Amino acid sequence: MARTVLICDDAIFMRTMIGDILRQAGFEVVGEAETGEQAVARYEELKPDLVTMDIVMPDMGGIDAVRQIMAGDPNAKILMCSAMGQQALVVEAIQAGARDFVVKPFQPSRVLEAVQRVLA
Amino acid sequence: MELERYIGLYLSETREHLRALNRAILAFESSGSADAAGALDEAFRAAHTIKGMAATMGYRGVAELAHALEDRLDEVRRGGGSASGELVDRLLAEADALETAVEEAVAAAVPAEGELAEIGVEPAAASKGARRGGGARGGGAPPGTEWIVRVVIEPGCALKAARAHIVVRNAAAVAPVLGTAPAEIDDDFDGVLLVYVGEGADRSALEAGIRSAGDIESVEFEVPIAASTRSGGAAAGDGRGIARHVRVDERQLAELADGIGELAVLFGELQRIAAAAPRSELAEITDRIGRNVAELQHAALAVRMEPVAEVFDRFPRVVRDAARSVGKEVEFVLEGREIELDRQMLEDLSDPLVHLLRNAVDHGLESAAERVAAGKPARGQVRLRARRERSHVVIEVEDDGRGVARDRVIERALALGIPVRGGADALSDEEFLRLLSHPGLSTRDEVSDLSGRGVGLDAVVTRVRALGGAVALRSVPGEGTTVSLRMPTTLALAQALRVKVGDEDYAVPLTHIAEAVELAADRIERVDAGEVLRLRGEDLPLVRLRTVLSTPGDGQESAALVTELGGRRGALAVDALVGREQIVIKGFDRAVGMLPIFSGVTLLPDGRPALVLDPVSVF
Fold first, then answer.
1. ipTM of this model?
2. What is the pLDDT of residue B606?
3. Which residues pair with B152 in a beta bridge?
4. B417 φ, ψ (degrees, to nearest 5)
5. Beta bridge partners of B177
6. With an 8 Å Cβ cutoff, is B174 touching chain A?
7. Is the dihedral of CA B11, B15, B21, B24 positive or negative?
8. Contact B538, B569 (CB under 8 A)
9. Which of B2, B3, B56, B66 is nearest to B318 (CA)?
10. What is the average pLDDT across B535-560?
């Protein structure tokens, strides 16, 4: 059975791109979220194998979303998607429980490596 | 910075080899044509070893000079090797230039006083450490640190600090992490992280955990420098369960150990007298002294022991540099760093191990393309493993490469006129190893910067044998090669056979003795090269110890020791066998012209000194 993923990003372009990379690697994209609050709600509803999480999103940011998801499911596997220059935020996300991170611009191979580490 | 610890060792060893090089060049000049080749081989080995050590220390200039000298010697060797004065002058001048380069490289590498204080103490890291309440300071491991894990993040990694946080988190999941350097990992982080790990960590799990953080270039394990050797270290002597170390001159330790060894031997004599005496009080006090002596002896031996990490920890660099210079990707795995070995032996094994590691990278592993074509991971693996095996320590250098191309080696040996015993088809691993270690034999046509010309293995076998060890080779085509060194754990104690020749007693360590047999006259046959002893259908070359030692008078030789090393067997005739006993070997300074068969001295139970013999050296 294909592994499931929830993609959280406020930009459609980014969601599409990440979705394409993961679909090609055999994942099933079961849901998308544009805000932190949506991310938390959809996680509880879908219980995906993997979550990709943008850091800066409207409403609730990605880091708070990580905290809330982890509070509900300590085994959640979350991969942060970050831009350069957000190192401190990525560190915070890792301390909040995110398993790994990738940096934009994305290279498919690096995204997949990170995904493999997250799911290992 | 880590390499500084080895400069003293490097320098003393290199000087030794420089002396050997000069001696060999002079021997070449004064030798007849028969010995010229041997002297050239010797000079070549010395230059080769100097090159390997310099490359390990990162002294490029020295390594290049040594390489040039090797080339010159090789040229002379190929040219039939006659020694004109002019040629010898040139060789000696090159040896001098090499020596100068060594001294200069070392002088340049030893930092001045002021520099030393700065090393490892980055102001930023130090102040942050202090802010955190005295956790890890730059350059200093917190009390209780068992491992310092040096993690280098790939230079191309974005957000290195974030990656480092994952490293620390993964490490903490499988091992007690006591701190890091830098203590706080933020935007200033440069990609090199030290993780201080407390006792009880499973090394391989820890390494796997750290590597799984991704973007990791290397993971190296280091042992913390003993607290008291750092000036001003807070951990020094605070008595919280950390052993305090004091510095003692090594010679004093050796004297102490020797004294205890002699005491043990004399005690044996006392015991014999006490057993024969009627007084039970004497027997009682003798027993008590005996227990004390045994404890003392144990303690004295423990002082000689040192974890192999002391030497092994410089090898990741050796392998990495070797891999780079031939453009291969190599994963290096160290196992059994905590295994202890006699300090002197460990130092003496350093060169041979460098040879073997470089051989593994250079000859053993295939190129990435060849590996992939053969269905193997592109990245080759080299493993250095130490493990205890009863009273021995086995050190193995293993690669997952192509295996030794037997056909090519044999073909080449035959082409060079080297005799192949038993023929190409029926060659055992031992015999093959002997062939491989023949000076001047190599399966590679071009000469590489590395282990190039097959000279290394020859030196390895010679050195290991001198230390009482044995070398074994296991090679499976397509799967890889393992070279095992089986070493006694200490140089100081040995099981030995006491033999008599004339009026003298000699001790022969059992390491290379397969058996002792009766020497019956009808089993001895004369052949062209001398005598052989016929034993169960096998003809063993027979050497009479009386002849080797120039013992005066006619004695009746009654026994022979059958020696065995790497498949090569021989028989050594002695007057009589006295018995088997444990001896304490004392090394000595070899006098000029002394027979190579003498390897040390020991004390006999009656207090007389006796020479220790290396029987294999005569075959």
1. 0.85
2. 66
3. B192, B218
4. 80, 20
5. B197
6. no
7. negative
8. yes
9. B56
10. 88
The residues with which B473 forms a beta bridge, in sequence order, are B483
Residues 199-228 of chain B with CB under 8 A from chain A are 212-214
Give the Cβ contact number of residue B2 at 10 Å.
12
Residues B486 and B391: their CA atoms lie apart, in Å, by 10
CA atoms within 13 A on the CB side of B42: 17
> Cα–chain-centroid distance for residue B526?
40
**Token pair of B351, please?**
């060169």
CB–CB of B319/B330 below 8 Å?
yes
Q: B232 pLDDT exceeds 60?
A: no
Q: Provide the β-strand partners of residue B601.
A: B586, B611
Cβ contact A91–B161 (<8 Å): yes
Burial (CB count <10 Å: 0-12, 13-18, 19+), residue B57: buried
Residue that the structure tokens 């706080």 belong to: B184
Q: Are B396 and B385 in contact (CB under 8 A)?
A: yes
Give the residue from chain A lying closest to B185, CA to CA.
A91
Q: Hey, which residues 98-117 in chain A have their CB within 8 Å of chain B?
A: 99-101, 103, 113-114, 117
CA R_g for chain B: 27
Is B190 near chain A, with CB under 8 Å? Answer: no
Q: What angle do CA B139, B140, B145 make, to 5 degrees?
A: 130
Tokens encoding B26: 């002079």
The answer to whether A88 contacts chain B (CB < 8 Å) is yes
Partners of A104 on chain B (C-beta within 8 Å) are none
Structure tokens at B404: 């030794």
What secondary structure does DSSP assign to B472-515, as a single string?
A: EEEEETTTEEEEEEEEES-SSEEEEEEEEETTEEEEEEGGGEEE
Q: What is the pLDDT of residues B330-345, one digit of tens each?
A: 989 989 888 888 888 8
Q: Which residues contact B567 (CB under 8 A, 6 or more apart)?
A: B428, B430, B431, B433, B434
Residues in chain B: 619
Q: What backbone phi and psi angles, to 5 degrees, belong to B612?
A: -100, 135
The amino acid sitting at B121 is V
Query: Given pLDDT bands bounded at 50, 70 and 90, which one contains residue B210?
Result: very high
Nearest to B187 among A87, A114, A120 (CB): A87
CA B91 to chain centre: 29
Average pLDDT, chain B: 78
Interface of B with A in 99-158 (CB under 8 A): 158
Q: CB A103 to CB B165 under 8 A? A: no
Query: Distance between CA atoms of B537 and B552, rounded to whole angstroms?
Result: 33
User: Does B610 score more than 90 pLDDT?
Assistant: no
Over residues B14-58, the pLDDT tens digits come to 888 888 888 888 888 776 666 788 888 888 888 888 887 787 777
- Element holding B473 (H helix, E strand): strand B470-476
- Say how many C-beta atoms besides its own lie within 10 A of residue B483's C-beta: 28
Query: What 8-state DSSP symbol labels residue B250?
Result: H
Higher pLDDT, B603 or B276: B276
What residues does B501 pair with on adjacent strands?
B504
Closest CA to B342 of B303, B315, B389: B303
- Which positions ≥6 away from B340 have C-beta within 8 Å? B305, B306, B307, B308, B489
Most confident of B34-38, B364-368, B485-489, B599-603: B364-368
The alpha carbon of residue B129 is apart from the nearest alpha carbon of chain A, in Å, by 19
Alpha-carbon dihedral angle through residues B24, B28, B29, B33, given to the nearest 10 degrees: 170
B383 CA to centre of own chain: 15
Length of chain A: 120
Chain B CB contacts of A120 under 8 Å are 212
Q: Which two tokens stand for residue B376?
A: 């193997």
Distance in angstroms (rounded) separating the CA atoms of residues B397 and B349: 13
Rg (chain A; Cα; Å): 12
Token digits for B23?
């001696």
